Amino acid sequence: MRLCTILLGLLLTVGIARAETNEVRIAQQTSAAFLQFNVMKHMGLIEKHAAALGVPDVKVSFAVFNGSDAQNQALLSGAVDIVSGGPPGLMVLWAKTFGTAQEVRGVSNIVYLPWKLNTRNPNVRSIRDFTDDDRIAMPGVKMSSQAVVLQMAAAKIWGDAEYDRFDKLGVAMSPADATAGLLSGGSAFNSAFTVPPFQDIQLKNPAIHTVLDSRDVIGNAAGSVAWTSKKFHDGNPKVYRAVVEALKEATAFVNAHRREAVEFYAADTAAKVNVDEVVQIMSQPGITFDVTPHGQLQWATFMGRVGKWKVQATSWKDLFWPEIWDLDGS
């Protein structure tokens, strides 16, 4: 009888181990705002932590996306497991899936950094000066982080009723392509709202200047987060924990070894980047790599107030899975 009990226990253990996935598919974007993903890829950190937790031989793959919309579609379809982007990308999907079997929540924060709306139009000194003839390249129209910051800025000036007055000027484009077009001067748009290091590269051209800094709208809450589905979170507790621990280790590595992290990024990106330049840009004051979510309710409150959804978060913990609830978030 005792032997049968032991054998049953072993069989149950094997069954639990097999229930964990042996593959993690990560969607990442093209900017240096996601250095932890480059570090995790090159150092095999998810594989390392999964093995330590009893799930060996996990295969991790990375796919590049531009903007949160395509990533969210891939997450809901089951094509990827972990996605990343600005807080609005998480929150729109959180609100859409809240309380359902497809529920989506955040894994952790990734980085805090300013976004700058730059233009080559000498007549535009503030967002008040934009006309219907202007066009603004950004990662996504209406729901990208940059689009929402511009909506927040518009609401502060003209009221919530006109928060979306600049949506019609948006042109969806990757930061790299937006930068190339803005610098060429011959594109169908004359402004770009992107991310470091691209916004800083743009400003090296004396014909380009900044119209709006995200810090003037939302303080230091601008940045990026990672998120995943309830299915992946609940179905793979050990592998999910490995992802969280890998993000924490990668964040510590980025903060201690910024140049090596940027070298990983340079090796992964299709854009031609100067490593020294990117290291300098990504080491500026105001850029902080940190897994702790801060300022998340600012985003959620605004987006709920202007009617982007009906569900409202009352705490940052509503938006993130419990594994990081011990952090001092907001």
- Summarize the biggest pleated sheet: 5 strands, mixed
Strand arrangement, major sheet: 7-6-8-5-9
Mean pLDDT rating: 91
Relative strand content? 15-25%
Q: How would you classify the helix and strand content by structural class?
A: alpha/beta
Q: In percent, how helical is the residue content?
A: 40-55%
What does this structure look like?
This protein has 14 helices and eleven strands. The chain has two domains: 2-110 and 222-324, Periplasmic binding protein-like II (D-Maltodextrin-Binding Protein, domain 2), CATH 3.40.190.10; 116-220, Periplasmic binding protein-like II (D-Maltodextrin-Binding Protein, domain 2). The protein has 330 residues and is an alpha/beta fold. The longest helix has 20 residues, at 237-256.
In short:
This protein has helices at 2-19, 35-43, 45-52, 68-77, 87-97, 145-158, 175-184, 198-202, 215-218, 230-235, 237-256, 258-268, 275-281, 296-305; strands spanning 23-28, 59-64, 82-85, 104-112, 116-119, 136-138, 170-172, 191-193, 209-213, 223-229, 288-289. The chain has 330 residues and is an alpha/beta fold. The strands form 3 sheets. It has a 5-stranded mixed sheet with strand order 7-6-8-5-9, sandwiched between helices. A 4-stranded antiparallel sheet has the order 3-10-4-11. A two-stranded parallel ribbon has the order 1-2.
List key phrases describing it.
D-Maltodextrin-Binding Protein, domain 2; disordered N terminus; alpha/beta; five-stranded mixed sheet; globular; 14 helices; 16% strand; 330 residues; 43% helix; four-stranded antiparallel sheet
